[in-house]
Amino acid sequence: MEFEAVIGLEVHCQLRTKSKIFCSCSADFGAPPNTHTCPVCLGMPGVLPVLNKKVVEFALRLALATNCTINRRNIFARKHYFYPDLPKGYQISQFEAPIAEHGWIEIETEKLGKRRIGITRIHMEEDAGKLIHDDARPVSYVDLNRTGTPLLEIVSEPDIRTPEEAGEYLKRLRELVRYLGISDGNMEEGSLRCDANISLRPKGETKLGTKAELKNMNSFRHVQRALEYEIRRQTGLLLDGKEVVQETRLWDEARGVTLPMRGKEEAHDYRYFPDPDLVPVEIDEEWIDNVRAGLPELPHEKRTRFVEEYGLGIDDAKVLTSSRELADYFEECVKGFNQPKKVANWIMVELMKFLNQDGIEIQDCKVRPNHLSELLSLVDSGAISGKMAKDILEKVYKTGTSPKEIVETEGLSQVSDEDTLRTVCNEVLTENPKEVEKYKAGKTKVLGFLVGQVMRKTKGKANPKKVNELLVELLK
């Protein structure tokens, strides 16, 4: 029997606000434990939460970018559950009236092509703290800095059918939140966290199977690997005539398996009810229009424009628009050197080689757009060769010095003077009579050897194109 996977993702996106969602504590990541706390986020008796307006604005940005319906009146609720890093004993979230519902994101995979993945809801909530477990002793420490940090939870419809689609959906969502400037989307730091619900059913069936919820996945690769394992595990159970148990399972990356954590809760287990300390949020059309007017050009729009305006292939456009900063970098380079395809190739092949090697983003790179434009202009004018340009780019990358300055300081200008090159070419032909005879006998491949000798004599500074032309002329 062949089974089909039914996958839905619940993504928690930590927002880039200066302060927390219901108090004025800093929301910055990486501070010493328990230093960004106050009576409100610690849940002390008698304190009252005050909603951070920027959180609502960020939620509206994402709702509009994901084609959602915005609820003009939405309500905060208390979600009750016990956990050591949740000081109040409940989390302020949204339940019956979230800020946005019924949207979609378009993805594309090699196997299934373009598909729309539905979004059930987007709601605002506060984050819990973090437990740090001691490997040497049976104790745990709690850091409550993260408590009260604003989150958006994005719940997808169960429209995803493969682990590959799940990874693609997450990449598109991460791309969106970064373009919108609402989150850094860093999965390793927990800014973007994903839980996956997965069940299997016989192909052709419409009834859903029993689902398992997967947690503890902090990279796209982990999500895909965990789903691949869970598909194998559930398939094995069903083929053996056993039942899949509804439960929450943890992904163990070291062993490559999912392990039982607890029985899966239902909504009624959380005893949701409207938070009496927070009034309903009323959103009018003017606010929505103002947020819409401030939206940046979105990734899919930018990809289309790059293809149409710059004549790039769709694959190149996808790479160059993978982040807003990279797309802006490319366009700044083109302003200084108006050959888009050449600029694209140098960014994707030569520059990104260094970025990937060092694990840094384009905005942290010492090679600024005007540097790359200047370098390509030097190549285009014949002042330096393409090979020299690659060496110079590495020096700019390490030092931040302009290409022109490096060329002038190190005397790297390409030799293009015809009289000088003719003299060197004649010397090489005189020193290599056997190669000259071979060439004249029809073995034209020796021309490459002769060019190499000229390059050696000029220490790589000769213009290769002119050297080729001169040698062919002199060998007639």
Please, could you describe this protein's structure?
The protein is of the alpha+beta class. The mean pLDDT is 92. It has helices spanning 53-65, 163-179, 220-239, 285-293, 299-310, 314-320, 324-336, 340-358, 369-380, 386-399, 403-410, 418-431, 433-440, 446-457, 464-474; strands at 3-14, 69-70, 73-74, 77-80, 90-93, 100-109, 113-126, 130-133, 140-143, 150-156, 192-202, 212-217, 247-252, 257-263, 273-274, 281-282. The termini are far apart. It folds into 3 domains: 3-287, no CATH class; 297-410, no CATH class; 418-474, Arc Repressor Mutant, subunit A (Orthogonal Bundle), CATH 1.10.10.410. The longest helix has 20 residues, at 220-239. 40% of the residues lie in helices and 20% in strands. The strands form 4 sheets. Strands 2-6-7-10-1-11-12-13-14 form a 9-stranded mixed sheet. Strands 5-4-15 form a 3-stranded antiparallel sheet, with no helix packed on it.
Distance between the termini: 74 Å
Number of domains: 3
Percent range of helical residues: 25-40%
State the major sheet: 9 strands, mixed
Rg measurement, Å: 30 Å
> Strands of the largest sheet, in order across it?
2-6-7-10-1-11-12-13-14
| Mean pLDDT metric | 92
Give the strand tally. 16
Gross morphology: elongated
Q: Which structural class matches the secondary elements? A: alpha+beta
Catalytic activity: L-aspartyl-tRNA(Asn) + L-glutamine + ATP + H2O = L-asparaginyl-tRNA(Asn) + L-glutamate + ADP + phosphate + 2 H(+); L-glutamyl-tRNA(Gln) + L-glutamine + ATP + H2O = L-glutaminyl-tRNA(Gln) + L-glutamate + ADP + phosphate + H(+)
Subunit structure: Heterotrimer of A, B and C subunits.
Enzyme class: ligase
Organism: Dissulfuribacter thermophilus
